[in-house]
Write a structure and sequence with these properties.
CATH class: Alpha Beta
Low-confidence stretches: none
Strand content: 15-25%
CATH topology: CBS-domain
Order of helices and strands: EHEEHHHEHEEH
Mean pLDDT: 88
Number of helices: 6
CATH architecture: Roll
Largest sheet: 4 strands, mixed
Length: about 140
């Protein structure tokens, strides 16, 4: 196993992010259509938070009951991204090793890390990325 391999080798580089001014409905739509689970939240170019599919699922009934789309939409319209996101997310740089990222995930309660160099979003790495990398080593 390559112990010094940088996270830039496994991160998603084409990152979809949202502005803190976007609506939660647009966030939910991105999760549904793009099949992703985490979105960095920007204020300008700076990362100010991260929002997950689980954050949205906790607010809505859609997964539990049929025909609740109107109720879900009403809830999502009442709240802003900044009220739902995790603010001040932990970030890593693109030269952080995969091992270091795995150690962070093993001790933390979150499953994604924005990859930021000089305050600019370069990518995102998830627990799934790390697990896939580890599996490739066997």
């Amino acid at each position: 196993m390559k112990k010094k391999k940088p996270v830039s080798s496994i991160m998603t580089k084409d990152v979809i992010s949202v502005s803190e001014d976007d609506s939660l409905e647009s966030v939910a739509s991105i999760f549904r259509t793009k099949g992703i689970r985490h979105l960095p939240v920007r204020s300008g170019k700076k990362i100010v938070g991260i929002i997950s599919r689980n954050d949205i699922n906790r607010l809505t009934f859609g997964a539990l009951f049929d025909n609740q789309e109107d109720a879900d939409a009403a809830i999502l319209q009442m709240l802003s991204i900044s009220q739902v996101m995790s603010d001040k997310p932990r970030t890593v740089s693109s030269d952080t090793t995969i091992k270091e990222v795995a150690e962070i995930f093993s001790k933390a309660e979150y499953h994604s890390l924005p990859v930021v160099d000089d305050e600019e979003l370069k990518g995102i790495v998830t627990t799934t990325d790390v697990i896939k990398y580890m599996l490739e080593q066997y």
